[in-house]
Write a structure and sequence with these properties.
It comes from Comamonas aquatica DA1877. One of its GO terms (cellular component) is cytosol. It catalyses: adenine + H2O + H(+) = hypoxanthine + NH4(+). This is Adenine deaminase. The chain has 343 residues and is of the alpha/beta class. It has a single domain, classed as TIM Barrel, CATH 3.20.20. The protein has 17 helices and eight strands. α8 links the parallel β3 and β4. It has an eight-stranded parallel sheet. α5 packs parallel to α7 and α16 packs antiparallel against α17. Helix content is 52%, strand content 13%. The chain binds adenine (ADE) and zinc ion. Zinc ion (ZN) binds next to loops. The site of adenine has 11 residues, from α4.
């Protein structure tokens, strides 16, 4: 396929998004609308002033603003509206499957009931599937700057709503909060039949990726870009085809890589790792999933072969059934064949 057709392929190919925090999809306009609806006073005078504060130096500088933004979410309809706005964008980007993180502790700590959070998000997932045909499921994420005891309490509070989420994750401040801190709660979740994923190797060392694999027994690594510092880990990730949910624009905005041109995704892919492309917190990092693909490919010069591989990896790394995955891969193959014919 000619290089000129690669952007069209990136835009239209069926893909899965496996690393997106729903609270990170809150656009400044929606933050202000929800603040007004709920009578919440924001420490920013306008949408523009809020957006101007999105100049991050590292993960923590982002998390401080991200948690402040989430403070406008109070009612079930707020969670519903936020998720529907994201799902409309994802469907427009030809996302056929999204596995959405949510951070219940960010809300329950402010007195919002677990049922309010989960019912609002879950209803949006169902309505989006009916309206746009997108398959959407939820992953409950524990905040790693809080204790394992707090994670256990959160799990207990969420279990009455077990049918509304497919797995659990681990996010927030990585440095100083190694995976081993959550070994027992992950073991309990595994026994409950939940899927397991964790952020590791975003800013933290390769030892945290090993910890997520060995102590937490995860099925995917979220980020994992620091794995490149450990050749043995690279060989292990390649040999096991462990999926890595990489987020290029996030890594650029949080200064993990100085520029998208320096991003190591092309090298990870060339080394045989099972890499996928995702948006992380699209409202804060300047783009949804197609923006991540388009900007990364423009910066690194990757082509159609890599585009196909990344989309296929994403579909096959979902928690959907093998038959469903195969049907999506067939859609991907049809899309590539159609574009090749037209070019
Ligand atoms: N990139 C990220 N890393 C860790 N926790 C997060 N929560 C939302 N986005 C995150
Ligand atoms: Zn993340």
């Amino acid at each position: 396929m000619a290089a000129a057709h690669v952007p069209a392929l990136l835009r239209t190919m069926p893909k899965a998004e496996l690393h997106m925090h729903i609270e990170g999809s809150l656009e400044p306009e929606l933050i202000f609308a929800l603040a007004q609806r709920n009578g919440v006073t924001l420490p920013y005078a306008s949408v523009e002033a809020l957006r101007a504060a999105y100049a991050f130096t590292d993960l923590q500088s982002f998390l401080d603003i991200y948690y402040a933004g989430a403070s406008v979410l109070l009612q079930e309809v707020d969670f519903y509206d936020m998720a529907m706005a994201y799902l409309a964008r994802a469907a427009a980007d030809h996302v056929v499957r999204t596995e959405i993180f949510f951070d219940p502790q960010t809300h329950t700590e402010r007195g919002v009931p677990m049922a309010t959070v989960i019912h609002g998000l879950s209803r949006a997932c169902k309505d989006a599937e009916a309206r746009w045909g997108i398959s959407a499921v939820l992953i409950l994420s524990f905040l790693r700057h809080l204790s394992e005891e707090a994670a256990f309490e959160t799990l207990e509070a969420a279990l009455p709503y077990r049918e509304h989420f497919v797995g659990i994750g681990l996010d927030s401040s990585e440095r100083g909060n190694p995976p081993e801190k959550f070994e027992r709660v992950f073991a309990r979740c595994k026994a409950l039949g939940l899927h397991l994923v964790a952020h590791a190797g975003e800013e933290g060392p390769p030892a945290y990726v090993w910890g997520a694999l060995n102590a937490l027994q995860v099925e995917r690594i979220d980020h994992g870009v620091q794995s490149e510092q450990d050749p043995e880990l690279m060989r292990h990730l390649a040999a096991t085809r462990m999926p890595l949910t990489v987020c290029p624009l996030s890594n650029q905005k949080l200064c993990v890589f100085p520029d998208l041109r320096d991003h190591n995704l092309p090298r990870l892919l060339a080394a045989g790792l099972n890499v996928t492309v995702n948006s992380d917190d699209p409202a804060y990092f300047g783009g949804y999933v197609n923006d991540n693909y388009l900007q990364l490919f423009a910066a690194t010069g990757m082509g159609a072969v890599q585009a196909y591989q990344l989309a296929r990896n994403s579909l096959e790394a979902t928690f959907a059934s093998p038959a469903q995955q195969a049907a999506w891969v067939q859609q991907l193959d049809d899309c590539v064949a159609q574009l090749a014919q037209a070019s």
